[in-house]
Amino acid sequence: MKATAVRLTREHAREVLGKIEAELGNSPGRSALKTVARTLNSDVQTYSWVGVYLVEGSELVLDAWSGPEATEHTRIPIGKGVCGFAAKAGRTEIVSDVGKDSRYLECFPSTRAEIVVPIFNHERVVGEIDIDSDQLEAFSSLDQELLEAVARKLGPHCVG
Ligand code: SME
């Protein structure tokens, strides 16, 4: 875990969103996914690992990630795990304690909490942002608001 990780504040969420909006101006197409993963991971202390998956047929396929190590879950069937559930339901899932959620597919032994935010394009789920935290109950409605705003910006970058 990043030392003394503190949860997101409204002010910091606004700063991070502003930075991402500025960066997306210089990140055409799919390159935006890597940019966003890197910035979220570096700028929000509670985020230990950030990935962006894209929908390909009946699977989620990892396109970009930022964190200390790679995950073995690079392809996840829609409907499986917290990631697959969020893609199928088309709504954000917050897991405060991964040890208590039977849907959870483990990637990293240090993970304690997870948030998965679908990315839409014309009302269709085309991808998602998946974030692991080494801190229990790491994610609040502020994280959800920030990440849903980021996901809206990423929609057009996930298609074509
Ligand atoms: N934990 C996810 C799998 C992806 S890894 O966290 C990178 C899940 O339950 O779907």
Report what the structure shows.
- By secondary structure, this protein is an alpha+beta fold.
- Helix content is 32%, strand content 26%.
- It has helices spanning 10-24, 31-43, 81-89, 141-154; strands spanning 49-56, 59-66, 75-77, 93-95, 113-121, 124-133.
- The protein binds methionine sulfoxide.
- Methionine sulfoxide binds at residues 51, 71, 73, 76, 81-83, 104-105, 107, 114, 130, 132.
Layout of helices and strands, plus pairs?
Blueprint: H1 10-24, H2 31-43, E1 49-56, E2 59-66, E3 75-77, H3 81-89, E4 93-95, E5 113-121, E6 124-133, H4 141-154
The structure holds methionine sulfoxide (SME).
Methionine sulfoxide binds at residues 51, 71, 73, 76, 81-83, 104-105, 107, 114, 130, 132.
Short description:
The protein is of the alpha+beta class and 160 residues long. The protein is built from four helices and six strands. Helix 1 runs parallel beside helix 4.
Give the tags.
globular; 6 strands; binds methionine sulfoxide; alpha+beta; 160 residues; 6-stranded antiparallel sheet; single chain; Beta-Lactamase
The main β sheet shows up as: 6 strands, antiparallel
CATH topology: Beta-Lactamase
Could you tell me how far the N terminus lies from the C terminus, measured between alpha carbons in angstroms? 36 Å
Q: Which sequence of strands runs across the widest sheet? A: 3-2-1-6-5-4
Low-pLDDT runs of 5+ residues are none
- Total domain count: 1
* Content-based structural category: alpha+beta
Mean pLDDT: 95
Strand content: 25-35%
- CATH superfamily placement: GAF domain
The distinct ligands, each listed once, are: methionine sulfoxide
CATH class identity: Alpha Beta
Bulk shape? globular
Alpha-carbon Rg, integer = 14 Å
Supply the CATH architecture: 2-Layer Sandwich
Number of DSSP strand runs:
6
Secondary-structure element order, N to C = HHEEEHEEEH
Number of helices: 4
Helix content: 25-40%
